[in-house]
Amino acid sequence: MRSKLLILTVTLAVSAMSAFADTAPCIVNIVNFVRKTEPRIDAITDDILYKTTESELASMLQNGLNGTFLLQYDALIDPKYQELMRSLPANFEVGAWWEITQPHVEAAGMTWRGRYPWDWHANVGFATGYTPQEREKLVDAYMKKFKDVFGKYPASVGSWFIDAHTLKYLADKYHIVASCNCRDQVGTDGYTMWGGYWQGAYYPSKNNAYIPAQTKNAQINVPVFRMLGSDPLYQYECGVGGVVQGVSTLEPVYEAGGGSDSWVDWYLRVVTQDPAMGYTYFQAGQENSFTWDRIRPGFEMQMPKIAALSQIGILKVETLEESGKNFSKRYKQTPPTATSAMSDYTPRNSKTLWFNSRYYRTNLFWERGAFRFRDIQVFNEDNKSPYLTTPGTSTECRYFALPLVDGCLWSKTEYMAGLRILERDGKGEYNEINCIGQNINPSGNTTIVTINATGGSQYVISLKEKTITVTSAAGKAYCLELTTAQGAATPFTAIAPGRISANRDGFAYSTTLSGGTFTDLRTTPGKICRITPAGKSITLHLAQK
Q1: pTM for the whole thing?
Q2: DSSP labels for 196-262?
Q3: By the 8 A CB rule, do 449 and 440 touch?
Q4: SS3 of 84, please?
Q5: With 70 as the cut, is the pLDDT of residue 17 above it?
């Protein structure tokens, strides 16, 4: 184990020492959130949950690492957890985990509606299931107890998902400096969060805590960090064509992801070394519900790797509070960022780039010579969450952005949706390009992607804060074509030469075009539109404000 870790560290160090100063810094939060009860599995006792948290802390201390523990209310009021948290070194952080439990509700003077003392159903176990006034009571009750125990209010509050009213109340009254929420997922545990800012942090809209605000007046001034270290290549399409995604993340409990020594080496390499813009970020750690027996192999494998990379300056380990404060000092609005994975751990030899701004996100994906925009989601701060002022009554939760391209939900296993580059041949037919190489060059707030294709073709994609521009650098005649699996439900309501219009759950939005025209292809199954340039370049304007 030590020799393998040394090889990884030396390899990264040699490649990084000359380049790391010129690349985006990589930040990691080690966040372990803590429940006192786990009613889903009878064999998991309170004592097992406590020993899991205790063991996570011991492993971190053994490796000289600091981090953040987020306490659910039932753990906050338990003397064992209080004593353990008080014993933490000064460079650790204790914060709040915002899943709602029976003692929490009763401390707020309300009646518990759950099946168990902690009920994971969204209408009971999360703040979205309560009225805005009840959410404030829950905040006040938690903060009072936390201050009674620790002598101060928590600086960080995390949750799989948290509504805008609660988050704004926490910021305005208790001055929290950081929050975190779940990675993008479809249906897992009944929670769907899809299309948001992919990695790192964003300032959420006052109308919808899942999406970035575009203006200062509309944003909650607390950065929200995306959790769980998603596999940038394959988490997106886990379970494509179904209603529930699988999991491919850094979480140490998953043997094919964060529990795999080789996968973790690959993940740490791409997140620290592959082209990036602004900064890269990931969250390590694990909820105690998975228990130490299952977590231990992956957790104890990851911690020395993170420690070694931190010691040579490749990773920066911070508490969630530190990351929130540093983010707010550096950025007054959500910044554009990019992260990539230019190698694969499977024979598919895929590559990917994620670009995020406060206006949109996009994902570029290469596989076996094929290229497509796998995802484009636009953000609009006026798009109100259904939970903003009204309690959710469903046992599930649904948060969405506004899709222009959705390579997961509009796909089936036999055909992957996307926006592809097609080139016109000598017969006037359009055919998908064959990629033979690519280069990613982040510069300032822009990421430039150059794609080399067979026949001497070259295409340059410029990703800016508000726009995506595609240029045929070699002057070849081309178009972009948006296609889906046959029968996929899409939101498009109208396609005109200069604008494509859509409606998602009653919210209307549109994307405009310059340098070319949209052509409606929806009479052909599986086809949506073609974008044909007037010259060499076409530009999608993605700012909704």
Answers
A1: 0.93
A2: S--SSEEPEETTEEEEE-SSSTTB-SS-EEEPS-B-TTTTTTTTTTSSS----BS-TT-TTTTT-HH
A3: yes
A4: helix
A5: no
| pLDDT 10s digits, 319-343 | 999 999 999 999 999 999 999 999 9
- In 3D, which of 466, 472, 11 has the Cα closest to residue 268? 11
Q: List the structure tokens of 534.
A: 């007037």
Which element (helix H / strand E) includes 334? none
The token duo for 416 is: 């992957």
- Per DSSP, the three-state class of 86 is helix
DSSP 183: P
Q: What is the SS3 assignment for 382?
A: coil
Q: How confident is the model at residue 545 (pLDDT cuts 50, 70, 90)?
A: low
What's the pLDDT at 10? 38
d(CA 160, CA 230): 14
Q: Is 252 exposed, middle or buried (0-12, 13-18, 19+ CB in 10 A)?
A: buried
- Please enumerate in sequence order all residues whose Cβ is within 8 A of that of 432, keeping only pairs 6 or more positions apart, or say none: 370, 420, 421, 422, 423
Token pair 């990703």 is found at 463
* Alpha carbon of residue 172 to chain centroid: 25
The Cα angle at residue 306 between residues 300 and 311, in degrees rounded to 5: 130
